[in-house]
Design goal:
Elongation Factor Tu (Ef-tu), domain 3, Arc Repressor Mutant, subunit A, 8-stranded mixed beta sheet, 23 strands
Length: about 600
Amino acid sequence: MKEIKYPQKYDVIVVGAGHAGCEAALAASRMGCLTLLTTINLDTIAQLSCNPALGGPGKGHIAREIDALGGEMAKIIDRAGIQFRMLNTKKGPAVWAPRAQTDKRQYQAFMRQSLEKQNLLQLKQMMVTDLIIEKKKVIGIKTNTNLKIYAKTVILTTGTFLNGLIHIGETSMAGGRLGECSSLGLPKRLKKLGLKMGRLKTGTPARVHAATIDYKLFDKQPGDKKPSPFSYETKELKLKQVLCYLGYTNKKTHQIIKRNLHRSPLYSGKIKGVGVRYCPSIEDKIVKFPDKDRHQVFIEPEGRDTCEIYLNGLSNSLPQDIQIKMLESIPGLNKAQIMRFGYGIEYDFVDPTQLASTTETKTTQNLFLAGQINGTTGYEEAACQGLVAGINAVLKIQKKSPFIMDRTQSYIGVLIDDLVTKGTNEPYRLFTSRVEHRLIVRQDNADLRLGELAYKFGLISKRRIDTIRKKQELITSMINSLHKTQHGNNSLAKILKRPQIAFADIRKIKPGLKKLTPEIVNQVEIEIKYEGYIQREKTLVNKLGKLENKKIPERFPFHKIGGIKKEAREKLSKIQPRSIGHAMRISGVTSSDIALVLLHIERAAKK
């Protein structure tokens, strides 16, 4: 077949239009680069392949950081959301997390509109089968129709499509999603580039018809009376929220699954990939938690104008006849008609320790990877990697310093640092518990933390950064005023620190206080009530910053350091940490190894 050279050359090509691909393409084009976004099917752009919800602990934090950095996800959630809840409000503000049920079709449609209207961004439906490499540098892509398209950088966001294999009971078929073909050529190319790859597994539950559910047998799960938006630019959410419901499996359900484990590819040995630890299939739950008599099942609508219902908690790869029997055993679902059967899917991923903190591969220049290809699971985890990859691809073209997010600065920084430093042998999900400084990197202050960076890259407008700066000024001014203003023997700040006192009570004491928006009042209350803890965190962050600022020269010859342990030498050489702080987080590297590294850096500097 004759090769055809496409006449247009691009700055950035993004392969895959899932959540990582959409954010990567939007970031690159908004920063002024001519960008091409390719996808196997234009009709599945930004598809919510699994559950129809976004946010939650950790994930909600990421969505708000994406918004603060000028990304699109949060804005689309606010437009397509059908139920909003702020989780963990009975706990401290560090773990408050927004979550939204989303109309899946609307989410896709709104995201596609944003992509199609974006200047310098082109969308094309095509199957990318290979990369064009020259002197260890990617210079373009090749499609299954022998079309060659050239670019300065390429970002791969292939999701579950690399050698994707779908399992429903004893039946297996190639596919990146049910009904869509898998990518066979790209994984071969990645292996040729010297990238070490592994195999992971995820899955999805059955979808059923809403009219066949007996809702009286489930507990109602309403949204918040006053819903909180995801995007800082959304001032108010006005919508009629839908109900979700909560039910449970039972002993009969578990017996049906136990008797048929030999027919589940997960336990018959057919599936080789490692599954998601924190969102296990129902088969895994039954086996790993034998003492539990029941497991939660959430009844979640897939949209306003569809009868399709997602059964969250029943992800499985069981045979179809067993899936039917399983539902028949659950009160309220005993007459449910399945519209789509659940299935498991295996796919290839790249060991993320082979990436720099920019998400660029160490083996091939100008090739960036983002999303599930790096071993993560979740829409939000994918989207934030895409955003960082898009920014760094542009900075690489512009020959500017890379954008590396510190783990003391953001949830996104923790996620990427975990991946490139520690790697993963199972689908990685970000939780609040992974974030050491979560009291100062909360979901409510992401715009204050990251707004200036977004403006620097041209990802948010002058109007928006002015709003953020004004907000910070008002917060600081009010905090200072409360510290200075006395009431009796105490300052107003000390009074506000009391658990039972709110800002509204302070206003009664001092009616002349400046009127503030609820958002700013919330910031003032948090900053004052947790002042001591926040200051302690900031002091620790400053100390850690000194280790991060102690840079390690590029391609440092760790293999030449005498006295260092073999394991440490191998890992340091492989990961090539950018700083002493980064090196200290590598498992197997001890303080004595770090001391030797510091000694050799100082000797090299003197020479």
